[in-house]
Each structure stands twice: as structure tokens, then as C-alpha cells.
Specification:
By secondary structure, the protein is mainly beta. The chain contains no helices and 2 strands. The protein is elongated.
Length: about 45
Amino acid sequence: MGKIIVKNAIKREKGKLYYIDKSGNVCVTERKGTARKGAQRKKSNKK
């Protein structure tokens, strides 16, 4: 497991995916499947 070096180094935007590439740069891209933001998971009634 890695260590957190800098906390809150970038401001995150909703609907974006942030990752670190092979060179160590922080990259951002659009998330896929954000059209379902109104959908909710079904809750099971198992106990």
C-alpha cells in the first residue's frame, strides 16, 4: 500500500476520473456511464 504524500492537491470535479499514468503525472478524463446519475441500487431484504 502506498503513502499519501499531499492531501487535496487538486480540486476534483464531478463526473471526472483522476489517475496517475506511467510517468507519474496526474491525468483527468470523463467518466463513462454518468448518464445514470438518477439510478439507485436495490436494497436486499436478506438478514
